[in-house]
Amino acid sequence: MSIGRRIIFGELIAAGVWFLSQAGLLFCFFTYQIIGRFVYLPFSWLANWPQAIFSLFLPRTLPGWYSSFAWPIDCAVSLIGWLLIGIVAACLFHFISRRRGKRRWSFINPLFGTLCTLTALAAVAAGVIYETRLRRGDYAQPSFAYFRWWPGTDNLVIDSDPGGWISPDTQSLLEHAGIRGRVGWVSTVGERSAEHRVIVLAQRLPTNACKIYFPRERVLIYVYDGSRWRTIPNGATTFPSFATLEPGNPIPIVWDHSAGGWSGTAAFGGWEESETNKN
């Protein structure tokens, strides 16, 4: 078989695997509560390993239009990745076959050999990517709790905290850092039971952006005093992955940049309601 025919054959197999992985992801999405959550992971690996590699070359801050076309871009990147793997596998199989001369492999056929090569390459790529993202902190995404802070000279008083985000230890940490006055809950993104949590205190709606690095410890606090940001405790250890809190109209937005992603959530969504607690 000529190398051209082998490449076409490998590309057809690669495109078939890509199609099945994308169809599997859609199936898991629509049946997540029934069966999708049990089979989601392998389909996700097969479909998303090219995006994981592609994201390593993306800038940390992506243009605004990217989020509008994220899904078709991801599908295109996934397809291109699988087609490249198909070409590499076909060339490798052709080289091995030529080295063996005209003898046929009695224990393997071209289809099985190509599938094995694709699977092995994808498994190695997935393992390397997983280890890289694990070290970077992409799997340690924290939950967020936003509080409004009214500075004062007396002790720190927690006006409202329905989720219990500010524990006695966290309150002591704030007091030790010099935070005084009143603090009231505004909004939450995620669960308090998350392994990592970020608590954001703001005296007023932020007017300058802040990179919120994912904490390695249980809790990390970001405080905005109306002009600048600081972290509590100072010098806390963090992962390289981060989200960016940017000023917005009417409220700020937190953009998650982990793994090259570009997803936004509202910050301080209940700020206007907190006005009633000012007095």
Structure write-up:
The protein is 44% helix and 22% strand. With 279 residues, it is of the alpha/beta class. The chain has 2 domains: 3-136, no CATH class; 143-277, no CATH class. The strands form 2 sheets. The protein has a 6-stranded mixed β-sheet. A hairpin with a 6-residue loop joins strand 9 (253-256) and strand 10 (263-266). Helix 1 (3-30) crosses helix 2, helix 1 (3-30) packs antiparallel against helix 3 (70-99) and helix 3 packs across helix 4.
Topology overview:
Blueprint: H1 3-30, H2 32-55, H3 70-99, H4 110-136, E1 143-151, E2 156-160, H5 168-176, E3 181-189, E4 197-202, E5 210-215, E6 219-224, E7 229-232, E8 238-246, E9 253-256, E10 263-266, H6 271-274
Parallel strand pairs: 1-4, 2-3, 4-6
Antiparallel strand pairs: 1-3, 5-8, 6-7, 8-9, 9-10
Helix pairs in contact: 1-2, 1-3, 2-3, 2-4, 3-4
